[in-house]
Write a structure and sequence with these properties.
- The complex is a heterodimer of chains A (559) and B (84).
- Chain A has 559 residues and is of the alpha+beta class.
- Helix content of chain A is 36%, strand content 23%.
- Chain A has helices spanning 2-29, 31-42, 82-93, 97-104, 119-127, 150-153, 169-173, 175-179, 218-234, 271-274, 277-280, 290-299, 336-342, 345-366, 393-399, 409-420, 455-471, 538-553; strands at 43-48, 55-56, 62-74, 111-117, 133-142, 155-158, 164-167, 183-188, 202-204, 211-214, 239-245, 252-258, 316-318, 321-323, 425-426, 431-435, 441-443, 448-450, 485-495, 498-512, 519-526.
- Chain A starts with a helix and ends in a 6-residue tail after the last helix.
- Chain B has 84 residues and is mainly alpha-helical.
- Chain B is built from 3 helices and no strands.
- Chain B has helices at 2-20, 23-51, 53-62.
- Chain B starts with a helix and ends in a 22-residue tail after the last helix.
- Classes of the chains: A alpha+beta (559), B mainly alpha (84).
């Protein structure tokens, strides 16, 4: 009797273990697979594309936004007459009818015909009531101010997988922040296909892009674009660039470069046209470099504004070369203030000799020459400063008046911010703050890069530059009633080992009001033909924009 | 205790039944929300277009507005000392 009892017990025990093992297999080992099968029957996975973040100017205007558009697709299995439908769709898609008919004849259930179709075009196509054709919602990048600040913004193109990706400028630099992250949602349906409340929209992972708020002032940008474009035409130049910065924060208030492009139709332009010359192209700054050298000598305590130049009576010979003034006029015993006023190259050679190569090189490094400024735009390039041991005496001489030395416009502007900002050089920044989709605002505080000169030196140098504006070569074009500190520049362009005397880069750099600067601006005109001089081309543009800015800021004349 | 269990079970059946038929209503509400979001996006695009400075400038010129030639300053800073 006992053995029968034990046999049945063992048998049931064995069966029990078998059932548990099988249950474990289906509910644990194969759980994910069965869950997916189940979801496929009663649920639907939808890919959720994130909305790209907007780019806002300082007045909260979306200079880069998103607009609703559509992807036009077709189900070739439902199309009975691909030729006729191809002909009907061709005018709306801007493609020849044979290409469209070929797509509609493919052996498949879904084929994309055209993306980023706008609302009006969609309605027109829908009016034709074509079978087998449908629309999927998309968003398209949209620039309401057209090509304003195009070089600063960049554009949104596609990557190798066909997904949106930012290139150049802000769209490129902040692409990851703006892009966000795709997610997936599971929608559970009943037998009739209606969504069920309890398990609705179990979305995972989607994060919309972050918005960027810029320092950019839309009004100043508009004025700068207009004056620069008009100036390039007026002076017969091949190109031009201009930047306006708040010297106290490094915030970029406006940035303009021509020739430009339309980010809405970026495909119609070459790669070269996307580049922002302000951060990528180097040039010899010419006389706009002189205040940096003079400020260095003043800061080192080697010279004062009244120090007289003992070598300014005529051309200066250095290492087999002869240094002349720009107009071959010489003023013996002129003061350092007058050297800047007259933009005297021989006077600057004296300053360079007094400083010496070691000190000059050290100050150049403190002013950031040869280093990346760290501006938050994609594509900044810097040539670097030639090593000190490769400088000859003629290099030291020519560098003092901005020839034989190259830098980008943003490098020069950033270096100058030290003179305008009490001696502190600020990091240039386009973005002021970033806002997350949840509403959290991340401020980007101003950053001091270095203090190349003392506050006292910056004030002295400012007065010398105010004097240069009042009494120098650009005095006929200055803004009456305002104290503006500035310096002209006319740099010859090196061509095949020598300087072309007929082609120049004309520029003007300055800030105002001199006693409490609200803006620092650099204007560069490339190869003007009506006149080669900065005083007659870049300076008038500078002062026109300066006048507009003073009016815009409500700053009354002080004199 | 048994009555509570039975009562709660009946309540669960009633709630689940109500929820399961809300799917249709929910679908309609979602459709409405999508519609408003789309409308909002289209209106936002129009607002941005119309308030763009490039648009306003073009419209102003078309309407005959011109730039002010000479600004008139109504306030200037007083000098530090006045001559009598």
């Amino acid at each position: 009797m006992n053995w029968r009892y034990r046999f049945v017990l063992i048998g049931f025990g064995f069966l029990f273990i078998l059932i548990v093992a099988r249950l474990f297999y289906w509910q644990v080992v194969r759980a994910d697979e069965l869950s997916a099968l189940g979801q496929a029957q009663y649920g639907r996975a939808i890919k959720l594309d994130p909305t790209r973040g907007q780019i806002l100017t300082s007045d909260d205007f979306a200079i880069a936004a998103n607009k609703l558009s559509y992807l036009l697709f077709a189900n070739p299995k439902e199309i009975k007459d691909p030729q006729t439908e191809g002909v009907e769709l061709s005018p709306f898609l801007g493609t020849d009818s044979s290409s469209i008919s070929a797509l509609l004849s493919l052996n498949g259930y879904w084929v994309a015909l055209k993306s980023h179709v706008d609302e009006q075009t969609k309605e027109k196509i829908q009016n034709f009531k074509l079978p087998g054709v449908g629309f999927e919602e998309q968003t398209t990048r949209f620039y309401p101010e057209a090509s304003m600040a195009a070089k600063l913004l960049g554009f949104v193109g596609k990557d190798e997988n066909g997904a949106d990706k930012g290139y150049f400028g802000l769209e490129g630099y902040y692409d990851r922040q703006l892009q966000g992250k795709s997610g997936y949602a599971t929608e559970i349906h009943d037998a009739l296909g209606q969504p069920i409340l309890a398990k609705m929209n179990d979305s995972i992972g989607k994060v919309d892009g972050r918005d960027l708020t810029l320092h950019l002032d839309r009004t100043i940008q508009f004025m700068l674009d207009r004056e620069l474009k008009d100036g390039i035409t007026e002076y017969g130049a091949s190109a031009g660039a201009a930047i306006v910065m708040d010297p106290k924060t490094g915030g970029i208030l406006a940035m303009s470069a021509f020739p430009s492009y339309d980010p809405r139709h970026y495909q119609n332009y070459s790669d070269e046209e996307y580049k922002n010359s302000i951060i990528t192209d180097v040039y010899e700054p010419g006389s706009t470099f002189k205040p940096l050298i003079m400020a260095s000598a003043l800061d080192a305590g080697l010279l004062t504004p009244d120090t007289k130049c003992p070598i300014c009576a005529g051309p200066v010979a250095i290492g087999g070369y002869e240094i002349h003034t720009w107009n071959d006029q010489y003023n013996a015993d002129e003061t350092m203030t007058e050297v800047i006023q007259h933009s005297d190259n021989t006077g600057m050679v004296y300053v360079g000799k007094t400083l010496g190569l070691d000190r000059l090189y050290s100050y150049l490094k403190k002013f950031g020459v040869g280093d990346m400024t760290g501006i938050d735009l994609q594509g900044e390039e810097v040539p670097g400063l030639r090593p000190e041991d490769q400088w000859y005496p003629i290099d030291l001489a020519t560098a003092t008046f901005g020839q034989g030395i190259t830098l980008t416009p943003i490098e020069l502007l950033t270096a100058f911010s030290a003179i305008a900002n009490g001696g502190e050089r600020m990091e240039p920044h386009v973005v002021k703050s970033i806002q997350t989709p949840e509403g959290q605002i991340i401020d980007i505080p101003p950053k001091v890069l270095d203090r190349p000169i003392s506050e006292k030196t910056s004030k002295v140098m400012t007065e010398m530059m105010v004097n240069a504006v009042e009494n120098g070569e650009a005095k006929w074009t200055k803004l009456k009633g305002y104290r503006i500190a500035g310096k002209t520049g006319t740099a010859q362009i090196p061509v095949a080992g020598h300087y072309d005397p007929h082609q120049t880069v004309a520029s003007f750099i300055g800030f105002g009001p001199a006693d409490d600067p609200r803006f620092l601006m650099l204007v560069i005109i490339d190869r003007p033909t009506t006149s080669i001089y900065g005083a007659e081309t870049a300076a008038p543009i500078f002062f026109r924009v300066a006048k507009d800015i003073m009016l815009y800021y409500g700053i009354s004349p002080s004199e | 205790m048994i009555a509570i269990i039975i009562g709660l079970s009946v309540a669960q059946i009633a709630v689940s039944n109500k929820l399961s038929t809300n799917g249709a209503e929910l679908a309609l509400l979602e459709k409405d929300i999508d519609g408003y979001k789309k409308q909002n996006m289209v209106l936002n695009e129009q607002v941005l277009q119309q308030s763009a400075l490039t648009t306003i400038d073009a419209q102003a010129r078309k309407s005959g507005f011109v730039e002010a030639s000479v600004p008139l300053y109504l306030s200037t800073p007083l000098p530090l000392a006045l001559k009598q």
